[in-house]
Hints:
Helix content is about 25%, strand content about 25%. It is α+β, with helices and mostly antiparallel strands. Strand 13 and strand 14 form a beta hairpin. Helix 1 packs parallel to helix 6 and helix 5 packs antiparallel against helix 7. It starts with 7 loop residues before the first helix and ends in an 11-residue tail after the last helix.
Amino acid sequence: MGSPDFSVPALRALHAAGHEIVAVYAQPPKPAGRGQRETPCPVHRAALELGLPVRTPARVKRDAAEHAAFAALDLDVAVVAAYGLILPKPMLEAPRRGCLNIHASLLPRWRGAGPIQAAILAGDRETGITIMQMEEGLDTGPMLLRESTPIGPRTTTPELHDALSAIGARLILRALEENPPATPQPEDGVTYAPKLAKADGRLDWTQPAEALDRRIRALTPWPGCFFQAGEEVLRVHAAEPLPGSGAPGTLLAPDVVACGAGALRLLRLQRPGRAAMPTADLLRGYSLPAQLT
């Protein structure tokens, strides 16, 4: 049970290991692209490629027919990785070994929808994967396996996403083979990673440059970071913190912006309706205003 790219390596690993996958659950196809054609999600596409049956219910929480159909699969276990729908108690309890979740953090830190981005935003030095026995609470279930990975000073969400996805695929195979004992999550250290919105990408120049750098690395490519430059909204795809001082939002150099503490060099920008490019190239025919908002 999964939907985005993050979940695909686990599906492929389970299939390659010879597990009998009786069904793949994924979010329904959604309109995408200029033609707004109905497009299957990455897990759906991978399942079709592997010749696996796919189910795409739009909702499952209060649908008794879906609960019955799920129970009729007579499962040993359900593997869940970023599925996107909340599983109700009848579905959580239907498989003999329950539902095992591949969660992209070292629980109990960063329960919730955006753990990868939250770890970078917070400046964490490490994160990881937790294989968790699911229950009705939000990522509150007991832990079966954990594996950590470092977060470097320049790590981006796509890099961390791919590393954690690979760890998750490896750990779920171990969990199924070894059936390790479940350990309750500690009560101390619980944090929550909320679902991200486009507004989270607005850069506030009164914040320290290092915090803005983390925000750009965490929220690129989605929802993306942006600022107002005169009449235009520019997206920032890459930046780096520097020493410097000045009124927040003022240009200290053609590509350097003063922040609440330190300064930020804008390395890669995108104007509306155009492709992203190195800032040095963009500035050959365009100048940023002296004050950014």
